[in-house]
Amino acid sequence: MKELFQHTALTDGVTVRVAVNFLPEQSRIEAGKWFWVYHIRIENETADTLQLMTRHWRITDGNGDVNVVEGDGVVGEQPVLRPGASHDYVSGCPLSTPHGSMEGHYTFRRSDGTEFKAMIPFFPLAAPATAG
């Protein structure tokens, strides 16, 4: 099945694409728990080899409460992307409301040691009306 990337951001030659899906089978709506899975593809369109060093997420729930998540790499990895290469990973996000959003950035290190931030596009988390 071909994934449909709904959200895209381009920063300094790095494209970050996001596809997000609500997972009713992982959610416990009666307990106030909603769960989404998101697939990220990071594409290195620069002439330099890049390493993803850190992630910074801003997760906002339907009440406007913000949770900031920072850490090394993504899903336990700090992938190296050669020119023209891409890296895919899948992760999930639980919320205590049926709606919210995510956005953020990755910090990449170039082969010369300099670092820059690549934006992760804003994307909504929305459970279907029938799920609540």
From TrEMBL:
Protein name: Protein ApaG
Organism annotation: Novosphingobium mangrovi
InterPro entries membership: ApaG-like, ApaG_domain, ApaG_sf, Uncharacterised_ApaG
Superkingdom of origin organism: Bacteria
Gene: apaG
Coiled-coil ranges from the UniProt annotation: none
ApaG domain location: 8-132
Gene3D superfamilies recorded: ApaG domain
